[in-house]
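Batch job 17 of 40 flagged for manual review because the log was empty.
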Amino acid sequence: MTTISSRILIADDNLQNCELLDAYLADEPFEIAMAHDGQETLNKVATFQPDLILLDIMMPKLSGYEVCKRLRADKATKDIPILMVTALNELGDIERAVQAGADDFLTKPVHRLELTTRVRSLLRVRHLTNQRDRLLAYLEEVDGEAVKSLGLK
């Protein structure tokens, strides 16, 4: 039995695109959730707490750009890696995605190897960042206890 190692949210208004990305990632130990518009994406992020978001740009209610900006502005979600997956492929679209806070960009049609490679890479960075944050919190705690025990504060 394979254990789930990461949670991925696929956000795309086209159900077939969601199913294709899900199928491409099916062999990986991921728990996958889906959202089909910008507002649902924000709601799912809050409840599902993904480790990575695959985000389409052109969605109803809120665009992927707007979703990305809102996630980056929120302390609770600012560090979740976002991989924009879109049919838009002009340089201006890529620049706008980066300005909104995207970590990476894939153009549709997506190739399976490219998707899985980028997903693994972004998740590796996410998990290393989480480990670093836990270690820093632990060191702060240990340092605080040492200061107290030495009577320095």
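Reviewer: the log was empty due to a logging misconfiguration, but the result itself is present. The longest strand covers residues 6-11. Unflagging and moving on to job 18.
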